[in-house]
Design brief:
heterodimer, A: mainly alpha, ABC transporter involved in vitamin B12 uptake, BtuC, two-stranded antiparallel sheet, 4 strands, about 75% helix, B: alpha/beta, six-stranded mixed sheet, four-stranded antiparallel sheet, binds adenosine-5'-diphosphate, binds magnesium ion
Chain lengths: ~350, ~240
């Protein structure tokens, strides 16, 4: 192919610019870190505390990220309504938990009092995701790739404003669970019970999901369908059923994540899925979209990075309120990965492969 | 009654008229070959039988039943399996997992295990590589896997799309031996090939397809000696 001198110069300028950004960000991180560390503002216990917080946050991102990555793996499509599926789970759990709380069940049996809302959230989220797939995505299966993406954004708005319509724009307080109050201090590091619960629950859910995908007939069929829908059909696999199962499984994880999120932050509203949704999408891309272990790793990395980042390098750079820039870290990471390593940590290239 | 009857089938890709009214029958127990050059419509014919494509006109009848109302995955339950062109193994699944996908429709786990043992006796090589990812197999091994996978569902009719493609002669020999063997075990075979000589050497009857139309159909022996076939497909002058 012939390229003119002008095009080549433009290419050089763009490449140079991208390298400039890369170096500038790396420098900012390194300098900020050095300054912070040399000031010795935080104790090592505090640092460990940040990491613990980040792991708990990251576990929630990871649970949500699984749904993005599984749907992408099977349909090569970004389900932008997934963050709102997370929100529907949280709402479902809220109503069940509130009711269980008023009848005093949660105090009598904290374990079931926690488990029942989680199961309800999972089922509700799965059911809503199945409806969204059936109504908003399946009819567009053979349309150009941009079309289902737009439909997904529409579905996202629909869910947000339907919930706002039903339940109003205000915030609801998730009922307190006495059994989860307080925490433990281990080697001077304070760990809250909620954090332990979140990490343990997320780990169990992810282990179950991994088992389903790797060892059950449905899971193997999901992997087969994600390689070739036609060949899978030739095996007698009902491809639509497997796609719906994938949506349902991913949504169940998001629904559970919605409850864990509510237990940590104690409040829910119709818009609560937006930011965690984008964070989880970032985590999925970070781990390599389409890659299930990648989503888990990506979630944890993002959670920890976000949690230590403000104190570690933003503060060192002299930024006055570094915690308010927490979200910026995640979004910067998303843009950076897409620009410089679209394959993520473990996965395929998002920009090249079938995108 | 023939096992499979294709009656005046027209299949399109959008506006492209790929099959132009083909007629073809297969009797229970036969090996029938469909030969023809690149782009003749061989793959389209198999995809039409297996339900991945639907004919715009005409009908496909299997064991007396019109297949128009069935989706591709439902036809596996009817007893039709396919070995797709280019093998189509699931490369990120292991050999065993690929075979398990082949027996997806079986409810009885024992039967699936028995079928897998049978495939392993047909292709001992696959047994050695059972835990390997299919994507890491050689072309010949992938063809064995795709063939074995098609047998996992207890098919009565197997559609094979150019199994010899890209294989060394020894391996082609091996695959064709297996085709004859499974045919002796009672499986009817529709074998699509560009390697006409090999195909006609094991088939009972054959059809020649050219730009979406069947131009000749006869017994395999007659086709082998037909001057037009020799010239066009057997590389003889
Ligand atoms: N997916 C497709 N879209 C459009 N045209 C196709 C497609 N697949 C095959 N064709 C066309 O249909 C005709 C028959 O193709 P095919 O059945 O693959 O031939 P063969 O298997 O005999 O090589 C060819 O002209 C081919 O270009
Ligand atoms: Mg072909």
């Amino acid at each position: 192919m012939r390229t003119s001198f002008g095009e080549r110069m433009l290419d050089l300028v763009v490449t140079g610019f991208l390298w400039g950004i890369r170096i500038a960000i790396l420098l900012a991180i390194v300098i900020g870190t050095i300054v912070t560390v040399s000031k010795g503002h935080y104790t090592s216990e505090q640092w460990i505390g940040f990491v613990v917080f980040g792991v708990a946050q990251g576990a929630i991102y990871a649970l949500i990220a699984l749904g993005y990555t599984m749907v992408y793996g099977i349909l090569r499509m970004i389900n932008f309504a997934h963050g709102d599926i997370f929100m529907t789970g949280a709402f479902g759990a809220y109503f069940v938990a509130t009711w269980l709380n008023t009848i005093g069940f949660v105090d009598r049996n904290p374990f079931l009092g926690l488990l029942i809302p989680v199961l309800f959230a999972m089922i509700l989220a799965a059911a809503i995701a199945m409806l969204v797939e059936r109504i908003a995505y399946r009819p567009l299966r053979n349309a150009p790739r941009l079309v289902p993406l737009i439909s997904a954004i529409g579905a996202s708005f629909f869910l947000e404003y339907a919930f706002r319509g039903f339940f109003g724009p205000g915030k609801y307080a998730y009922p307190p669970i006495k059994a989860l109050d307080g925490g433990w201090t281990i080697f001077n590091v304070e760990i809250q019970k909620v954090q332990v619960l979140v990490v343990a629950a997320a780990a169990i859910m992810m282990a179950i999901l991994y088992f389903i995908v790797m060892y059950t007939k449905v899971g193997k069929a999901m992997r087969a369908v994600s390689e070739s829908q036609d060949t899978a059909a030739l095996m007698g696999i009902d491809v639509n059923r497997i796609i719906v199962s994938t949506f349902a499984l991913g949504a169940a994880m998001a629904g559970a994540a919605g409850v864990l999120f509510s237990l940590v932050y104690r409040q829910i509203d119709f818009f609560m899925g937006f930011t965690p949704g984008i964070k989880a999408f970032t985590a999925a891309v970070l781990g390599g979209i389409g890659n299930i272990p990648g989503a888990m790793v990506g979630g944890l990395v993002l959670g920890v990075f976000e949690s230590i980042g403000p104190s570690l390098f933003l503060e060192g750079l002299g930024i006055p309120r570094p915690y308010q820039l927490k979200d910026v870290i995640a979004y910067t990471m998303l843009v950076m990965i897409l620009l410089f390593r679209p394959s993520g940590i473990l996965g395929e290239r998002l920009s090249k492969k079938k995108a | 009654m023939s096992m499979l009857t294709i009656n005046n089938v027209h299949t399109y890709y959008g506006n492209i008229h790929a099959l132009r009214g083909i007629n073809l029958t297969i009797e229970q127990g036969e090996i029938v070959t469909l030969i023809g050059g690149n782009g003749a419509g061989k793959t389209t014919t198999l995809r039409t039988i297996s339900g991945l494509l639907k004919p715009r006109e005409g009908s496909v009848t299997f064991e007396g039943e019109n297949l128009a109302k069935y989706k591709a995955h439902e036809l596996v339950y009817k007893g039709i399996s396919m070995v797709p062109e280019g093998r189509g193994v699931f490369s990120s699944l292991s050999v065993t997992e690929n075979l398990e996908m082949g027996s997806f429709i079986l409810k009885d786990q024992k039967e699936a295990e028995k079928n897998m043992e049978h495939v392993f006796t047909l292709f001992p090589r696959l047994k050695e590589r059972r835990n390997q990812l299919a994507g890491t197999l050689s072309g010949g091994e992938q063809q064995m896997l795709a063939t074995g996978r098609a047998l996992m569902a207890n098919p009565r009719l197997v559609l094979m799309d150019e199994p010899s493609m890209g294989l060394a002669p020894v391996l082609v020999e091996l695959i064709f031996d297996i085709i004859q063997q499974i045919n002796k075990e009672g499986v009817t075979v529709l074998l699509v090939e560009q390697n006409a000589l090999m195909a006609l050497s094991i088939a009972h009857r054959g059809y020649v397809l050219q730009t979406g139309e069947i131009i000749i159909s006869d017994s395999a022996d007659k086709l082998k000696n037909d001057p037009a076939v020799q010239k066009a497909y057997l590389g003889m002058e």
